Amino acid sequence: MSDINHALPRQVADAYVDDLIALDPITGTYLGVKESSSRLPDTSPSGQEALAGLQRATLARLDEAERRPGADTGIERRCARLLRERLTAELAVHEAQEGLRAVSNIHSPVHSIREVFTVTPAETEEDWAAIAGRLRAVPAALAGYRESLALGLERKLYGGPRPTATFVGQLTEWADPHGTGRGWFEDFAADGPEKLRAELDEAARGATAALVELRDWMRDVYAAAVAGAPDTVGRERYARWARYFNGTDLDLDEAYAYGWAEYHRILGEMRTEAERILPGAATPWVALAHLDEHGRHIEGVDEVREWLQGLMDRAVSELDGTHFELAEPVKRVESCIAPPGSAAAPYYTNPSEDFSRPGRTWLPTMGLTRFPVYDLVSTWYHEGVPGHHLQLAQWTYVAKDLSRYQATVGGVSANMEGWALYAERLMDELGFLTDPEERLGYLDAQMMRAARVIVDIGMHLGLEIPADSPFRPGERWTPDLAQEFFGAHSSRPADFVESELTRYLSMPAQAIGYKLGERAWLLGREKARERHGEAFDAKAWHMAALSQGSLGLDDLVDELSQL
């Protein structure tokens, strides 16, 4: 920080990461900062304002940095553009007081608090001593979150009733779902060393007691207060969140129309593929239901974890040297089972900055022990290789050539989810999805992402369903219609569909970034191919694209076109 007054944009960005870690030790843990392991962030209104203060101060420093000699080089320019766009979008969300109604089934301070324990180092006695400290910090962190929500109630800033009800159920699941006197924190602490047993057990009981206290307040006070509030957010709030998650000011009506265009295109492909599996099937989802009963399956939770590990290992082996050039640390990725009480969707966690903790994919089992192969293959191409893992691990690997900010906390959701969806399509293009079951599963996943654009924008903006829709033409979207449509156009079970719709209600505009981000990646590749002609080298382009760090969709196509 001593040279910050003479810094260029990348130095300003990296100083911001240092200061952010001091305020948010959860971010520090994901980056592999050992000193963060015993702490949790201040989730109260004052903690939120402290973060906003850091963002404002960083933008002021960036103004100065961009005027210095050397700030106009490509690498400095890209970093400055990302930093300004991200901090401006984050401040817009803060100033609209969205943090005072952050209730979700997947993305809230409480979810972050619980999930960070799954990536906190837990190898040594020293590690577990830090975990005990973090467990003791849980009550204050949950109290700060409750203080934020209570202030939101005072200001009539309400979280949605449906996400609230789901969240209460999750808190119950994490606290003591079976009446055994042991919640998620106690089960987690049970793996600690005997020397710290009393300390860990006491800290875990305190964390669970705080969880129960929050659950009771959410159920008895908050849920009653928000009853009757809308679950949808309207155009103004939606546009703000669209900028936050996509890094661009979207034309929402154009994006909605694009979602429908993709729906019709994918449906045609699905019908062709379904005919190969179950001739005469009334819809592709009848064929998928047939696969649920008669298709290839993996039996057992341990077995599916090992099978997914093998799938990723084979992808690394077959792609490296042919379609990508992978550094040794990037080749390591672990398959894991998500902890009980997680949302229904699989997810990925980044490697630490030094790769001591590898990238990991997580499968929520939802109590199941039998897993259809068609539903797994393209999903793990998305979450693992060549999807999230290759992009985010490569950012980590080249961070020294970018900035720490670009490679880590500056990530734009639509860039990352767009790459992962592009990765699924790439595997289809490269011939990895010729098996009819696996390809129909891939198309089903593509349809889910198109349906997300339709229902997410449609229900939050209350748009009309077009006349050429086979579903309720002329009616206006509501959450109930969205759930009906999504369920009719997905192979996923009812509990998954319900979890997904609740996610869209509580994270408006995040789910549209998959398809819109994929479109940006495809357009950037097309323009680069046009620019190079027959000299276009897809492998070189992919590695250059994966090594430029994060960008919002405003900038992504331009930068990809120049590679």
Explain what this protein looks like in three dimensions:
- It comes from Streptomyces chilikensis.
- InterPro entries: DUF885 (IPR010281).
- It contains 23 helices and five strands.
- With 563 residues, it is mainly α.
- The protein folds into two domains: 4-231, no CATH class; 241-514, no CATH class.
- Helix 17 packs across helix 21 (513-532) and helix 19 (479-488) packs across helix 20 (494-506).
- The mean pLDDT is 96.
* Overall average pLDDT: 96
* Strands, count: 5
Rg estimate, integer Å = 23 Å
Strand order of the largest sheet: 2-4-3
- Low-confidence segments, given as residue ranges, are none
What's the number of helices? Answer: 23
In brief:
It comes from Streptomyces chilikensis. This protein has 563 residues and is mostly helical. 62% of the residues lie in helices and 3% in strands.
Write the layout of secondary structure elements.
Layout: H1 9-23, H2 25-31, H3 45-65, H4 74-95, H5 109-116, H6 125-154, H7 161-175, H8 184-189, H9 197-226, H10 234-246, H11 252-277, H12 284-294, E1 297-299, H13 301-319, E2 333-337, E3 347-349, E4 359-363, E5 370-372, H14 377-383, H15 388-397, H16 404-407, H17 413-429, H18 436-461, H19 479-488, H20 494-506, H21 513-532, H22 538-546, H23 553-561
Parallel strand pairs: 2-4
Antiparallel strand pairs: 1-5, 3-4
Helix pairs in contact: 1-2, 1-3, 3-4, 4-10, 6-9, 7-9, 11-12, 11-18, 12-18, 14-17, 17-21, 18-19, 18-21, 19-20, 21-23
